[in-house]
Amino acid sequence: MATDGPPGGAAVAEAPAEAVPVTPPEGKHLILVDGSGYIFRAFHALPPMNNPAGVPVNAVFGFTQMISRFLLDHRGSHIAVVFDASRTTFRNELYPDYKAHRPEPPPELVPQFALIREATDALGVCKIEQEGFEADDLIAAYARAFEAEGGRVTIVSSDKDLMQLVRPGVEMLDPIKQKPIREAEVEEKFGVPPAKVVDVQALAGDPTDNVPGVPGIGVKTAAQLIHEYGSVEALLDNAEKIKQPKRREALLANREQALVSKKLVALDADAPLPAAIEALEARPPERAGLEGFLRAQGFRSILARLGFGEAAGDAGTRARRGAVAAHQAAAAVPADAPRAPGEAPYGPYETVTDMAALRRWIAEAESAGVVGFDTETDSLDALRASLVGLSLATAPGRACYVPLRHGKAGDMLAEKPTQLDPAEALEALRPLLTDPGTLKVLQNAKYDMEVLARPENGGIAVDPVDDTMLISYSMEAGRHGHGMDELSVLHLGHKPIPYDEVTGTGRGRVPFAEVPLDRATAYAAEDADVTLRLHALLRPRLREEGALALYEEVERRMVAVLRDMEMAGIRVDEAELRRTGEEFAGRLVAMEAELHRIAGRPFAVGSPKQLGEILFDEMALPGGKRGKSGAYSTDVFVLEELAAQGVELARKVLDWRQISKLKSTYVDGLLAQIDPNDGRVHTNFQMAVASTGRLSSTDPNLQNIPIRTEEGARLRRVFVAEPGHLLLAADYSQIELRLLAHVADVPSLREAFARGEDIHSRTAADIFRLDPGKVDRESRRRAKMINFGIIYGMSAFGLATRLAIPPNEARTIIDAYFAQYPGIRDYMEGVKEEARIHGFVRTPFGRKLWIPDIAAREAQRRAGAERAAINAPFQGGAAEVIKRAMVRLPRALRDAGLKGRMLLQVHDELVFEVPEAEAEATGGVARRVMESVAELRVPLGVELGTGRSWAEAH
């Protein structure tokens, strides 16, 4: 057995000899480990797990595993793990909004901080932290002090903020890639040497830490400017010489902001040293203390790996979690894999037709700690689909298909069954699918989770899961689609077998349950294989793309929330719905008669061709344009323009179309979609479609019912609560305008929201120079139109059309608006410039939203992309706010002992079904959670309403 040596390479006493480095450290070498990076990577990568005392320990486990592996592989004469002591530092005194957008740590992580520090002590490593200073400052201070004593320093981190410290005696080590970061790597990333990194960061800013920078200047432009002028100060002193007008104006207007930003990003190498250099000397861990700590946490796999003999402990914390950690957390030494994701061949795959084979696959998946998983069904409706089979993948190229309901009923009774009994197979799979130590990787996980949650499929609550669709969506919303086939071609260079190739098309298509098993296996097992390969490639990118927190804290948690909402559905009063349909049908008949009278003859109102002939041939109205078919266009834009000009026929056709659509989509459509088993409709929330991060609703779409019309209210009457219950509507008030006031930092709008004033009246008073008490209805209407129009990038022509005023008058109003609120114009120009430079914009919380057409050659497409760039941060920000609330509310309601449940999300509104006696208490919890999920410069507001129906709740 090897004897103890210094850590940083020192093995635990009696650890296996092959795990112990045998060469001593060369000279004085200090290893500084960025503890926060390890903590959050471990927490977000690992599924939930508890120690024998019931305390969450997934971050503790990951941290301990990564540090212990690092100690075995890297030698140093001195070593320390550096932690952040608090959220507030001297930088908050310089700039109160510094890191203001960072959410509070998840509740499950908070009790783990102390245990992680215990783990550091148990491993014999010095821990460093200091109130009022960030870990990065302490790293800078120790690096300088150790250099002064003639030593060299390695900083274990990939944090870009630490790259300013790199120099001949100081380098970084990327703990994921295990690659050194020296001056060449820093210059490749920032375009400048390490000594100039702070200047580039000061100009470009950092939305993650809320460092403001200079609007419209990104890293590439900042590097060019610093190359030319040498420093931020020299650049600002010469800002008037900048040729580009927008860049020049941005620098002049944001001089102080840039200087403050430089102070925020520059690390303080003069920070106090909480411990003397001597205290950082590497020393062996105290064996009994380390073993006691690991056993108390139930970390059997680490005990075994470090050579502590029989690893007794909590059976629930199995050794295979080490494999999960290596795969998920991308630890310092990644788990070995047979082949890289793109190298292994796709098949052949195994068809599992007996329980012994299935049990072998289950054991293999449990041993791997991570398994690709997919279901095959006969419908896209997860709540009505029949489960035909399922597939598992345990490594690239290693997958199987388990048929359950193929072919004729009773096949399982044959002498040699070709498939398993569904109930027996699902019961055997239950421990694997619910095991917290085995990660299940799925594509569009919500669908498969709903299929398996149904009683006829075992009522299995699959957990924990990763979703490759949402991983991709979190990083690249709007850039491309996120379906498995598209992701496979994009990232793996592999085109999966098309569904049509397996089932046929048109009249020749056969149900998947009738596809021969060899073809079904090739198709289904490949899906699980591709999903697992995508996970291996995409998940490590989350941190690199700055999307890990978004995925872990929002998108991933939304899957189970939406599963429960969709399965709950919302009750429909079928008799009321039929009465509504009769009313709409009667109104349509009357409206058609009125339209025939106005036109002077009968015509098919629903025929664009006949309508176009009446408008542009018979009535000789201007603006008619024929399409390729020769018929005039009569789309909504054409009719709205004619209606704005006073053409009665156009206005009334628009009214007819709205009623007709409501009847066909919501009356006739809902009647067909009421579940006969519970009298409810179950919408499907699409999670990865909208480029802004918003959810969309289909089958039925409950997000497009008009809000403020009589017809919309009439339709909402058909959605009702169960007897003894009420519907509770909780609606964010003017959230996009609040985000506008926040990001553009408009003092008067911030003040109005803080005081609870009517924001549109305040805007009218500001831009029309009116006394606040004398704002009339028309002025408020105009102000409201421009407030919302600005968010959507509305032009003067668009405002003129909406307000029915001349374009020059609309331009005057817009100019007055921007003159009163110059920060809004600056923000909008900055957003467009950001989109042009990077191809994406960010929400106020840092999420990337890609704008594909921002560089389009066609002016019309490019202008549309610029409008999308302006609007995306507001829609995306609002979507993120309500999603944050949604992932917190179910637990908050449970903790309060309340039985209410969320049923719907309609843009900025949540709808709950609550027992009558709990309505007030539920409303209080909903308001508290919804108003506290984000810290903005203005308060969030939530409006509540209750009623027997959705209409009454408004």
UniProtKB/TrEMBL annotation:
PANTHER family listed in its UniProt record: DNA POLYMERASE I (PTHR10133), DNA POLYMERASE NU (PTHR10133:SF27)
Domain 5'-3' exonuclease: 28-283
Gene3D superfamilies xref list: 3.30.70.370, 5' to 3' exonuclease, C-terminal subdomain, 5'-nuclease, Ribonuclease H-like superfamily/Ribonuclease H, Taq DNA Polymerase, Chain T, domain 4
Protein's UniProt keywords contain Membrane: no
All copies of domain 3'-5' exonuclease, residue ranges: 349-543
Record text on subunit structure and interactions: Single-chain monomer with multiple functions.
Keyword field contains Nucleotide-binding: no
Gene designation per UniProt: polA
Catalytic reaction equation(s): DNA(n) + a 2'-deoxyribonucleoside 5'-triphosphate = DNA(n+1) + diphosphate
Protein name per Swiss-Prot or TrEMBL: DNA polymerase I
EC number: 2.7.7.7
Signal sequence coordinates: none
Residue stretches making up the DNA-directed DNA polymerase family A palm domain: 712-918
Source organism, top-level taxon: Bacteria
Any matching Pfam family: 5_3_exonuc
